[in-house]
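Review form for a predicted model. The reviewer records the input and the model, then writes brief findings.
Reviewer: anonymous (R2)
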Amino acid sequence: MSYFVGAYASSPNVEGWDQALEKAYYDQLKTFKNMKGLEHPFVGQLHPHDDDWFLENIDPAWDIVFTCVPGTMARMAANPNFGIASDNEAGRLEAVAFIEKACKAVAKLNAFSGRQAVQAVEVQTAPNKSMAASSAKSLKTSLDTMLSWDWQGAQIVIEHCDQFVEGQTLAKGFLSLEDEIHVLTTLNSELNNESKALGMVINWGRSAIEKRNLNGAAEHIQKVKESGLLVGLMFSGASDQSSEYGIWEDTHMPPSIALADAKSEDCSLMTEAEMHRCLSLVYLKESGLKESSAKESDVKENGEKETSPSIVGIKLGIRPHDTSLEDRIAYNRDALAALDRFFV
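Model under review:
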């Protein structure tokens, strides 16, 4: 099994931009035999600092998944009405124009790679409902427009972030899972075209933050899987205890791994056992027998094929910010090893 790594979150370039340091980081990532590619931040251009540097330093064998959340959050800070689900038309159109830039970045990266390097683009259902009105109707209008563009085979997927919950401190405060499922199901039925089918990605930490417990991700995985929309599962943690990562904050906390030599965060609710529990919801047959390896599709007992998620991986933030490059690599290596142990 191989995985996507949201490497930007654990980059040693927490502040500023040091090309040599980032190159050393990427060179170490290239040694990971179980790394499929990058979950890469889209902020309005191909790379936050230097498109040419990025093209020159990625492994040409890596697949790429764009995540639009960094650019979305930056633009929301300047304009609370920004978002593809915004009921404010100017804010919605601004967000659609931002996603169109992502579509152009897909073409640029694919042209450089000489292949379909970008597998998917993760979009988020901003704005924060505590600050601006949003709706499933507005989301559908935006997605209708986005589906008219040439994505060169990349799948548009919604990455579910914590929904607005009255009286609860929010990390994102976007649309509900139910609204997102409804819109995607409706659009997929209208498309009737598997090559353009929309999907959803669940992020472990963001679901835990929404539900305020470690069962959030499992609950969301089950709902999305039942809807036939599950295409991804990304593991970043969260905690209900005070630490540098915050309480119920979306800081991509590393997992808690009960091995003496593993890089681990003890107060993370995302334990190795919880990671395996979520994987089991995806990769176990109805008979309860674990697959010996992840395949492109599983076969249910009734003989029907069930597509396995194409996006599985980790995204880890590292504290303190002055953590060494070696330790940053170790956090990623040990989290990937924890995923691997599920498939043994």
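Findings: The chain is about 40% helix and 15% strand.
Further findings: The radius of gyration is 19 Å.
Recommendation: see findings above.
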